[in-house]
């Protein structure tokens, strides 16, 4: 049985090891490294003013960058679409925006109000794959699907499973952060960290730094 002082020493050691493994300072331990629930994001989007308009959104330049990497002939399948700001920008540019998926009902309600006549769905990306081809046929939409993940993968515990579920040959475009923030379960220090995490499933033809983010364009590998 450990004595009081020995137990405190062990706790300090374990906390230091945890911080070292995550490359994170102790004050971040309580707010990162654990996935947040749909209810948490509902409350976040309900009170956040950063997503009220595109001009208010701190990610608008990132959205613009990611959309510039999408072939205009392709149908955007927005994974983790949030309140529809990427959809609004894509449609304003005359791009094909097929659908958006998010597990926050509050985000989907906001997206539906912002961009009417677009298909948005409340669904959890980690629960299973989506049949994009069937959706496009049902909606009589032409063009190949392009799955877009803008600041989404760092929030998912089973992010690699989500990437694995993408049909082989599908175009994938997205971004991940180089920084910690609330809701993040990981960050990406450099380009190699992105390649090592997703290179088993994706063949990258674009992978580079964009400010505090890493943006990528890839094709889902065929095995």
Written description of the protein model:
Helix 7 (159-164) links the parallel strand 4 (145-150) and strand 5 (171-177). The protein has a 7-stranded mixed sheet, with helices on both faces. It is α/β, with parallel strands linked by helices and 223 residues long. It contains 8 helices and 7 strands, in the order αααβαβαβαβαβαββ. The protein has helices at residues 4-22, 38-47, 60-68, 85-92, 105-114, 132-138, 159-164, 191-198; strands at 75-79, 96-102, 119-122, 145-150, 171-177, 202-210, 213-220. The chain starts with a helix and ends with a strand. Helix 3 (60-68) crosses helix 4 (85-92). Mean pLDDT is 88; it is low at 24-31.
Give me the secondary-structure topology.
Blueprint: H1 4-22, H2 38-47, H3 60-68, E1 75-79, H4 85-92, E2 96-102, H5 105-114, E3 119-122, H6 132-138, E4 145-150, H7 159-164, E5 171-177, H8 191-198, E6 202-210, E7 213-220
Parallel strand pairs: 1-2, 1-4, 2-3, 4-5
Antiparallel strand pairs: 5-7, 6-7
Helix coverage percent: 25-40%
Enumerate the spans where pLDDT stays under 50 for 5 or more consecutive residues: 24-31
The total of beta strands comes to 7
Largest sheet report = 7 strands, mixed
- Name the CATH class of the largest domain: Alpha Beta
**Oligomer status:** single chain
Strand order in the sheet with the most strands: 3-2-1-4-5-7-6
Q: Tally the helices: what do you get?
A: 8
Overall, the morphology is: globular
- Say what the CATH topology of the largest domain is: Rossmann fold
- Series of secondary-structure elements, N-terminal to C-terminal: HHHEHEHEHEHEHEE
User: What is the overall pLDDT average?
Assistant: 88
Head-to-tail CA distance between termini = 52 Å
């Amino acid at each position: 049985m450990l004595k009081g002082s020995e137990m405190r020493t062990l706790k300090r050691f374990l906390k230091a090891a945890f911080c070292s493994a995550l490359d994170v300072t102790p004050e971040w331990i309580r707010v990162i490294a654990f996935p947040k629930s749909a209810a948490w994001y509902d409350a976040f989007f309900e009170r956040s003013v950063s997503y009220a308009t595109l001009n208010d959104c701190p990610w608008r330049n990132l959205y613009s960058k990611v959309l510039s990497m999408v072939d205009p002939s392709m149908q955007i399948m927005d994974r983790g679409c949030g309140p529809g700001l990427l959809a609004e920008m894509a449609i304003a540019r005359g791009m094909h925006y097929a659908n958006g998926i998010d597990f926050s009902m509050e985000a989907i309600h906001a997206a539906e109000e912002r961009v009417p006549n677009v298909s948005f769905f409340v669904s959890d990306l980690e629960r299973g794959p989506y049949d994009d081809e069937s959706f496009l046929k049902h909606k009589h939409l032409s063009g190949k699907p392009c799955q877009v993940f803008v600041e989404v993968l760092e929030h998912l515990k089973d992010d690699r499973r989500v990437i694995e579920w993408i049909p082989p040959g599908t175009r994938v475009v997205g971004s991940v952060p180089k920084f910690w923030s609330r809701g993040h379960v990981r960050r990406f220090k450099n380009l190699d960290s992105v390649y090592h995490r997703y290179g088993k499933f994706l063949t990258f033809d674009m992978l580079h730094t964009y400010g505090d983010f890493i943006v990528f364009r890839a094709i889902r590998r065929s095995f």
